[in-house]
Amino acid sequence: MRSRADLAPGIVLLAFGIWVIVESRNISYTNLIGNDPLTPATVPTALGVLLSVLSIGLIVRSLVWRPTTVSTEDSSDPVAEAVPRGRAAQVVLAIVVCVGYAVLLPRLGFVITTPLLVAALIAVAVGRERPVVTALIAIMLPAACYLLFIEALGLDLPVWPGAGPMP
How far apart are CA 105 and CA 100, in angstroms? Predict the structure, then answer.
């Protein structure tokens, strides 16, 4: 659904995309190979560019949006239905969970906080209908992230509580 309500999020996302691009340029890197085109800034820069381009599309689309005539049988406001009732609380709760994750990660470590984050986000998004599936995803997804980011890519993350980043 297109509406003028997309303008403000588009502007915020554009600002965030530009910030990601600028900040990713500040990532230090020592080029040992000599002519390596891939640096630690490559992925964040690409994601910032993608976010910026998509947000510009959202802004343009919201500016050229023309409301259609609403039939008499459906008098609901399209902007009011952009976020279904009850979903705003879920969005706020998901943001609180992510902020809590950022605060707890350095203290409790990746191994404890990431499964909790995944389980909490699944519970916020779909409820508690399938706890076994939620538990499996909450264990398997962080395990895959651990293998990719810590073992394969060698990134430093606070893996265990109080241990700080693993080398």
Answer: 8
Classify residue 31 as exposed, middle or buried by CB count within 10 Å of its CB (0-12, 13-18, 19+): exposed
- CB–CB of 39/27 below 8 Å? yes
Q: How confident is the model at residue 167 (pLDDT cuts 50, 70, 90)?
A: very low
Contact (CB, 8 A) for 119 and 134: yes
* Domain positions in the chain: 4-33+40-63, 87-165
HSE value, Cβ hemisphere, 13 Å, CA-based, for 110: 18
pLDDT tens figures, 111-121: 888 898 888 88
- Would you say 79 and 126 are in contact if contact means Cβ atoms under 8 Å apart? no
Supply the mean pLDDT for the chain.
Answer: 77
Determine the pLDDT at residue 34. Answer: 63
Number of Cβ within a 10 Å radius of residue 134: 19
Query: Looking at this protein, which amino acid is placed at residue 20?
Result: V
**pLDDT tens track for 36-49:** 666 777 888 888 89
User: Nearest to residue 106, comparing CAs of 34, 59, 160, 150?
Assistant: 160
Q: What is the pTM of this model?
A: 0.48
User: Which own/partner contact pairs does 150-156 have at CB distance under 8 Å and 24+ positions apart?
Assistant: 150/110
